[in-house]
Every structure is written in structure tokens, then in C-alpha cells.
Amino acid sequence: MREILVSGLREYLAALRVSVPVTKAAKWKTTVRLVAIGFLLAGEAGDQCIQVMPLVTQIGLLLLWASAIVTTTPATIISAPASITSSRRTKDEGQ
Predict the structure, then answer these.
(1) Which of 11, 60, 78, 87 is disulfide-compatible with 40, CB 3.0–4.6 A?
(2) Would you kindly state where each structural domain of the chain is located, as residue ranges?
């Protein structure tokens, strides 16, 4: 739900020509989430096919939980409003 709201906020602010910079934590979170989805899509078939890593599903769940934890950390939550405010100030000062 949060991701949908953030995407909507970015679209709305883009129409106002206000940029919302992306943090490194957000980029890492997205990377971990996409890798987790790959592991989860492989699922039990991945467990059976890949003899080296028989815990494909568990690794996918672990990575998904890790990305959820990064999403809810205070640094990630606090940095978004601060960056929006600073972008707004920069835009106002330029006029």
C-alpha cells in the first residue's frame, strides 16, 4: 500500500515540477525485493532443480522480509519528507 501511495505522490509532484530524489536505501530495498521475487517465483521447483541451494523459497522469504524491514526503518521514512521540503525550497528560491 505504501508503495502505491509513494508512486502516486511522485506522479503528483512531477506534475508540479517538484523532484523527489531517491535515496540509496530505497534503491537497495528495490534491488533486494526484486531478487526476492525471483527466488519466490522459482519456488519449490527451484528447490528441486538447484542442488547447490535447496532453500530457494526460504531465501526468497528472508530477502522479502529484509526489504520490508528496510521499508519501515526510521531513516527511510524520515528522509522522504525532508527531501520533498528541500526540493520545494529550491524551486521557490529559483523563481
Answers:
(1) 60
(2) 23-79
